[in-house]
Amino acid sequence: MSEHVLTAVSDGTGVITLDRPRALNSLSLDMVRAITHTLLAWRDDDAVQAVVVRSSSDKAFCAGGDIRFFHDLGRATPQQGSALVEDFFTEEYALNHLVHHYPKPFIALMDGVVMGGGMGVAQAGPHSRTRIVTDRTRMAMPETNIGLFPDVGASYFLSRLPGRLGLYLGITGATIGAADALYAGLADHYVPAANLTALGAVLNAGGGAGLPAAIAAFAAPFKAAAGPGSLERDRAAIDRHFGAGPVPAIVASLQHDDSEFARATLALMATRSPLMMCVAHALQELGAAMSMADCLRMERAAVRRTLENGQVIEGIRALVIDKDHAPRWTPPALADVTDEMVRQILAPAWPDHAHPLRHFHGAA
């Protein structure tokens, strides 16, 4: 169990509070295990009729996986470091699968930063999920910025967004706020931060299986207050450019557009891993027709292949260790990325009978 995961049950509602504020609730392996242990225990507990996941801090719901942990292990004894990193991804994806098929209402209060692994916890929820955003919400799948691709089930949930919004968010790693999250279908309700104390009273009042309806009623008056977002404004351009084909075709399409959106998007993509942008595109194209279980299995193999080429360690070094923001990507330019490189990342890493996630199930 983890000191950074607090749990409580009251009046039919189980509450998981992420409590690692200095690290913006970045998930450690111990935290993943603690959350999983709690959800498994509550799944068959009649005293728990609904689950709420929230943060103890107003800065972040969860900023993702602990990337410093990955970097340190990557530089440690190869056998020890590799084994713990492999455990992290296997167990994190097992948590995502558990949440996706959870049989009870699942509420995520996404106040503050919500990225990477935090998105996996919130977006992998069942059909009875309730995702709440606030005016402090800063949401993204920014993995292409650290030499990885959007994972934790993103090949499933991003590929099912309207139009080409999922490709735009996954390839660029763009950060969005509450209005954009609602527009894209990545959130269900908006509650201003100033009203979170009152929302807390609703959550603390229990209600069990009726909690989602109580939250919806509380949030209804605030719906218009989220305001317009940039995704709705730029939707036509996003669909046109990110529907142009593979990543090189997307870049070429953007280069023929002199709009502010096109210039900003090109500048953002220029900082991302060329290979991982192409992998992100391929994963969404495949994931759109796959179940969550199959998407997670595909991503798990792709993570294994990606870790082998060292891009993640280099991306983390440039972003959070040396902070020079000058990663030495391999290959360094989009023109150097070949179809064979992408196929190598997507190639099976284990035979089906030995895949660490072979026990996953579910047609959806």
Question: In words, what does this structure look like?
Answer:
By secondary structure, the chain is of the alpha/beta class. The protein has 2 domains: about 1-135 and about 175-230, 2-enoyl-CoA Hydratase, Chain A, domain 1 (Alpha-Beta Complex); about 155-170 and about 235-364, Alpha-Beta Complex (2-enoyl-CoA Hydratase, Chain A, domain 1). It is about 45% helix and about 10% strand. The protein has 17 helices and 9 strands. The protein has helices at about 30-45, 65-75, 80-100, 115-125, 155, 165-170, 180-185, 195-205, 210-220, 230-235, 235-240, 245-255, 260-270, 275-285, 290-310, 310-320, 340-345, and strands spanning about 5-10, 15-20, 50-55, 60, 105-110, 115, 130-135, 140, 190. The strands form 2 sheets. A 6-stranded mixed sheet has the order 1-2-3-5-7-9, with helices on both faces. It has a 3-stranded parallel sheet with strand order 4-6-8. The radius of gyration is 20 Å and the shape is globular. Mean pLDDT is about 95; it is low at about 75-80.
Brief digest:
Keywords: Hydrolase. The protein is α/β, with parallel strands linked by helices and 364 residues long.
Topology:
Layout: E1 5-10, E2 13-18, H1 29-43, E3 50-55, E4 60-62, H2 67-74, H3 78-100, E5 106-110, E6 113-115, H4 117-123, E7 129-133, E8 138-140, H5 154-157, H6 165-172, H7 178-184, E9 189-190, H8 196-204, H9 211-219, H10 230-233, H11 235-241, H12 247-255, H13 260-269, H14 274-287, H15 292-308, H16 311-321, H17 339-346
Parallel strand pairs: 2-3, 3-5, 4-6, 5-7, 6-8, 7-9
Antiparallel strand pairs: 1-2
